[in-house]
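We modelled the chain as a single entity of 181 amino acids. Its sequence is:
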Amino acid sequence: MNPVVRNIPNALTLMRLVLLPLIVWLYAGDAPGASWATAWVVLVAALSDIVDGILARRLDAQTEFGRWVDPIVDRLFFFTLLTMLWYFDTLPAWAVVPLLVRDGIVLLVAGPVRHYTDQAPQISRWGRGANLVLICAIQWFIIDLRDIGWAFYAVGATLYIGSMVLYAVRGMAILRRMRAT
């Protein structure tokens, strides 16, 4: 396969990472009010996450780099957006902290699973659904439609925490099987 084509999904992942400072800078200019410019850049970045996964599977362009870096960039993306919304008084700490703790727990479990099994993280449907609903919530907060944002947040945060439980159970089962062998 052409190396350029093979690395398009990775380039999209890295683009999402590079867009994070621009997102914060744009939002800082309008916060805590509506920031349509920020919302558009976040939308492009979020869509790039969907597109990179589709391309990687359809083009059979999955790489070890992408399997590990994409989920990390996804977590950095959410961490940055949530921290930004908290910092600029759009979201209270009580709404941000549980989601950041969830990501910390998932990363803590992923490390030992990787160490003992050499398996890349597997994203569940709950995790994908939670990401989608939370990015919608974040978008509503960014454009200052907070009542709608809170409705999406309630559903997304519930799915997000639920997915953490699934990841933790799955990770612990893998570790138990590895210890037994």
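As a brief sanity check on the tokenised model: The helical segments are 3-6, 8-30, 36-58, 64-87, 93-117, 125-142, 146-180. The CA atoms of residues 163 and 180 lie 26 Å apart.
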